[in-house]
Write a structure and sequence with these properties.
The chain has 122 residues and is mainly alpha-helical. It is built from six helices and two strands, in the order H-E-H-E-H-H-H-H. 1% of the residues are buried. The mean pLDDT is 87.
Length: 122
């Protein structure tokens, strides 16, 4: 989406919640961006937002994904306009998702693996 704000976050949460299987609840880690904690945001009943501590990008798995995309596919490029940027990012994302297991390896933090193990056991 071309903008990041509470409305965009609301749309994302609604679509995400609707895609979950019935009777399933998802925990989603979010950073301290204002649109993640706005009072105007209506959190769906099947989604729990878990805020990461402020100023801790090293704990946010998506930061490693962005870094990988920038280093591998997007750095040192001059793009003509917004559409060219969107096309380049989409192409980079598609290459990343074609790499079997890459996203999981980028996002596998020890604390996340521990949390997943504890959740699966219960």
């Amino acid at each position: 989406m071309p903008e990041v704000n509470t409305g965009t976050m609301q749309e994302f949460l609604n679509q995400f919640a609707n895609a979950l299987p019935k009777n399933e609840v998802a925990a989603m880690f979010v950073d301290q961006a204002g649109w993640h904690s706005s009072r105007e945001l209506v959190i769906p009943e099947n989604v729990v937002l878990l805020p990461l501590p402020s100023y801790s990008p090293e704990l946010n798995p998506i930061e490693r994904v962005w870094l990988h995309l920038k280093e591998r596919y997007l750095s040192h490029r001059l793009l003509d306009d917004y559409d060219a940027i969107v096309d380049a990012v989409c192409a980079a994302w598609n290459k990343l998702t074609d790499e079997d297991g890459r996203i999981k390896s980028l996002c596998s933090f020890p604390w996340i693996e521990k949390l997943i193990s504890a959740t699966v056991k219960t």
